[in-house]
């Protein structure tokens, strides 16, 4: 390897995006007049010059083979002169100027198994994490749950028939590599058992002080085991965040029978109408049930359908729930409200109802 | 090199259905023994309901402390070809634009050295190459840099900045997000490649308050486009929306305005712009008729994060308005001032948002040299426990 050192380039930064922009964008950069969404998955941006850019958006599973990237490259060559981009939600977009090529492009993408949609009042692709494919702290798989959920919600991706956009996100543990905490619907992998400590491994791979400091509730304490420095966990204080495990690999929380999924609702990042909000707990625990997680899929579908039937036009999930009230949300969805729904962490009291503003139910 | 054929009955069930299948993707690259073994290992996880990846490991390319995530499986005898399956985070071009030509070249590199599996893209924005053996890291890096690509961030460093497509296509973009992202990423190459912070630090640039890259939820420094002058109105087009029946002005627009600063008298839309909070709703709905004003710039918010460790935070206002002009020195200087304070006083693995909560926003502002303004808070404090400073009393 050392013979390579003289040739090494470092700190060159990302390639300049300008070289990848289609001519219509180079020409009209910063000079766009308006856009329309003529049909699901197709955006038309019109420049002040009158030029038009069409973006055709197709779903990908995020995890893609180089064979698929080459396929997308071939499709881009055929339809767009070789220009394409990805969106922040793992969709691929083909960027073209010839309106007559839109329908053949859509047909081609459908034929290859990459559906076109995800624009406007629709469910777009689920942003998600690695899960069992590549992560040590995953409480569940990611891709499998996403695939199962989107197979069931497919109709909402290829059509624009919801009251507003609906953003679903998936994270396989509380680290939340994704904006799960501010999504209309969030699916979150959770652990439910305190870490199992491998004291021999603690000695070789962990620093006791940083492991103790990692615990937000003070549940991890220093101790001595067989004459060696180690840690212990006060189990009643553990809320299974796995932060100790991030710092100390000897504190594994993964448990095949206890790990599972939780469902959260009503978050958003957009500032439109109401301010951005966090997702709130809807269902505390659903067991892991691979390969298709039917309980989780049905739970998400139920929430989507109840929202679609009840929300007003432009109303996001969280805005709809705030209008009707949380008691009504639980009633309409049939989801049981439990003690786990009531916050008991740092800012717990902020979520208690401290007014007499309640809808009362007539006898 | 053909590995023993592995049956994957559970994963095979995920090849059916209308949504694109990641299992099909893996099988497209399954002739590569690394990916063949990955399928076998994943099937095992589906059988046992548990992951088989060990906690990371210290691997990387020479001279960099970030950009590579070490990954080893815990069944290396059974699945030797993916025993080392490291991740390379490749810094994406701003806005995730590519040409077919450059994508093919990236694929060729990854076919030659790695698993052939990618993420387009990772959550932070990088083009992720998933599954690289240790010995291939330097060759991949050399070929990537030859092609003009560099690694992104990982660990306690500046994470790969990302942005919406901004002025490349969107008429709502209030600044050139792609130019700003490219410039800031290049300015902070050292901070990006060599972790020296208490914890990660993310930049995300959104061109307008619709915030298509979730910067307010996900970035330590969130730069969101906004404007100061009046929303531009094409009254004729507003009337067309109403005439066509597509929009009910009261139901869909004026009653949804968070500050009720709009009035529709049947023929003319008027907006009290001094009370407009730039939420974007009316512009989103009447997108052919309304658009952001011409005096455009951005607001800077600070401190968003997911729950680990002390709970999730949304970013809060730090600079209410800033003109965004290249080379964006204001942003660079502000970031450096923040890093100086947080770098010195932040605890290990304490994000800047948590640090600010611990020391107090007022003290933090003093340290970075910004004056407090009412735009930074929802309301002033309600508790009387004020830490008056003694020298102030004496003056």
**H-E order of chain A:** HEEEEHEEHHEEEHHEEHEEEHHH
- The CATH homologous superfamily of the largest domain in chain B corresponds to Sulfite Reductase Hemoprotein, domain 1
Assembly state = heterodimer
How many DSSP-defined strands of chain B? 14
Biggest protein-protein contact in the assembly:
A-B, 119 and 129 residues
Distance between the termini of chain A: 80 Å
Write the layout of secondary structure elements.
The complex is a heterodimer of chains A (about 375) and B (about 400).
Chain A: H1 23-28, E1 32-39, E2 42-47, E3 52-59, E4 63-65, H2 66-80, E5 83-86, E6 91-96, H3 102-112, H4 143-158, E7 168-171, E8 185-190, E9 196-197, H5 199-205, H6 208-213, E10 220-225, E11 228-233, H7 243-247, E12 251-252, E13 260-265, E14 280-287, H8 294-310, H9 317-324, H10 326-333
Helix pairs in contact in A: 4-8
Chain B: H1 9-12, H2 22-28, H3 33-48, E1 68-69, E2 86-90, E3 97-99, H4 100-113, E4 117-120, E5 127-132, H5 137-147, E6 162-163, H6 177-187, H7 189-193, E7 203-206, H8 215-218, E8 221-227, E9 232-233, H9 235-243, H10 249-253, E10 262-264, E11 269-271, H11 281-285, E12 290-291, E13 296-302, E14 316-322, H12 329-345, H13 352-359, H14 361-368, H15 390-394
Parallel strand pairs in B: 6-7, 7-8
Antiparallel strand pairs in B: 1-2, 2-5, 4-5, 8-13, 9-12, 10-11, 13-14
Helix pairs in contact in B: 4-5
């Amino acid at each position: 390897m050392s013979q390579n050192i003289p040739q090494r380039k470092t700190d060159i930064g990302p390639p300049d995006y300008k070289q990848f922009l289609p001519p219509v964008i180079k020409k009209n950069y910063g000079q766009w007049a308006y856009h329309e969404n003529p049909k699901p998955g197709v955006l038309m941006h019109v420049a002040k010059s009158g030029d038009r850019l069409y973006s055709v958006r197709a779903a990908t599973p995020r995890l893609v083979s180089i064979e698929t990237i080459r396929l997308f490259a071939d499709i881009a060559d055929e339809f767009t002169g070789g220009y394409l981009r990805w969106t922040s939600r793992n969709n691929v977009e083909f960027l073209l100027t010839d309106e007559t090529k839109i329908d053949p492009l859509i047909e081609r993408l459908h034929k290859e198994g990459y559906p076109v949609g995800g624009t406007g009042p629709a469910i777009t692709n689920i942003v998600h994490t690695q899960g069992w494919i590549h992560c040590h702290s995953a409480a569940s798989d990611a891709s499998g749950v996403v695939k199962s959920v989107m197979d069931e919600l497919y109709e909402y991706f290829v059509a624009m028939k919801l009251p507003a956009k609906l953003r679903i996100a998936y994270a396989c543990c509380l680290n939340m590599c994704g904006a799960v905490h501010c999504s209309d619907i969030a699916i979150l992998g959770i652990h439910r058992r305190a870490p199992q400590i491998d004291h021999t491994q603690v000695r070789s791979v962990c620093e006791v002080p940083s492991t103790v400091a990692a615990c937000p509730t003070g549940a991890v304490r220093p101790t001595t085991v067989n004459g060696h420095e180690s840690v212990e966990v006060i189990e009643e204080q553990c809320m299974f965040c796995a932060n100790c495990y991030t710092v100390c690999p000897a504190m594994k929380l993964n448990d095949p029978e206890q790990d599972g999924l939780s469902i959260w609702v009503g978050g958003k990042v957009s500032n439109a109408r109401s301010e951005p909000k966090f997702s709130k707990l809807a269902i505390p625990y659903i067991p892991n049930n691979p390969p298709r997680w039917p309980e989780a899929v049905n739970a998400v579908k139920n929430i989507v359908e109840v929202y679609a039937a009840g929300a007003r036009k432009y109303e996001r999930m969280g805005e709809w729930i705030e209008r009707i009230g949380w008691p009504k949300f639980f009633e309409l969805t049939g989801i049981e409200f439990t003690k786990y729904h009531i916050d008991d962490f740092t800012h717990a009291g902020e979520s208690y109802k401290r007014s007499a503003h309640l809808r009362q139910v007539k006898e | 090199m053909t590995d023993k054929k592995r049956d994957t009955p559970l994963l095979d069930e995920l090849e059916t259905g209308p949504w694109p299948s990641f299992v099909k993707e893996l099988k497209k690259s399954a002739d590569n023994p690394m990916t063949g073994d990955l399928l076998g290992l994943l099937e095992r996880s589906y059988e046992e309901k548990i992951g088989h990846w060990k906690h990371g490991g210290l691997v990387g390319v020479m001279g960099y402390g970030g950009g590579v995530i070490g990954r080893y499986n815990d069944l290396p005898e059974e699945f030797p070809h993916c025993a080392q399956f490291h991740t390379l985070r490749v810094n994406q071009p701003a806005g995730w634009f590519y040409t077919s030509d450059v994508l093919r070249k990236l694929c060729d590199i990854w076919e030659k050295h790695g698993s052939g599996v990618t993420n387009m893209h990772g959550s932070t924005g990088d083009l992720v190459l998933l599954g690289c053996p240790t010995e291939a890291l330097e060759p991949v890096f050399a070929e990537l840099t030859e092609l003009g690509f560099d690694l992104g961030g990982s660990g306690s460093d500046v994470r790969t900045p990302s942005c919406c497509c901004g002025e490349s296509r969107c008429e709502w973009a209030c600044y050139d997000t792609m130019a700003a992202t490219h410039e800031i990423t290049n300015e902070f190459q050292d901070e990006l490649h060599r972790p020296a912070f208490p914890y990660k630090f993310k930049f995300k640039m959104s061109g307008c308050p619709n915030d298509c890259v979730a910067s307010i939820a996900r970035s330590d420094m969130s730069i969101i486009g906004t404007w100061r002058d009046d929303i531009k109105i094409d009254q004729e087009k507003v009337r067309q929306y109403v005439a066509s029946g597509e929009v009910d002005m009261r139901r869909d627009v004026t009653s949804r305005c968070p500050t009720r600063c709009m009035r529709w008298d049947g023929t003319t839309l008027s907006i009290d712009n001094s009370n407009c909070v730039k939420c974007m709703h009316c512009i989103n709905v009447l997108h052919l008729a309304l658009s952001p004003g011409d005096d455009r710039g951005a607001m800077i918010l600070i401190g968003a994060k997911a729950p680990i460790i002390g709970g999730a935070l949304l970013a809060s206002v730090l600079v209410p308005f800033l003109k965004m002009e290249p080379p964006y020195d204001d942003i660079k200087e502000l970031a450096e001032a923040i890093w100086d304070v947080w770098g010195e006083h932040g605890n290990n693995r304490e994000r800047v948002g948590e640090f600010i909560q611990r020391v107090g926003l007022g003290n933090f502002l003093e340290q970075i040299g910004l004056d407090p303004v009412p735009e930074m808070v929802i309301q002033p404090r309600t508790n009387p426990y004020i830490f008056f400073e003694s020298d102030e009393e004496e003056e």
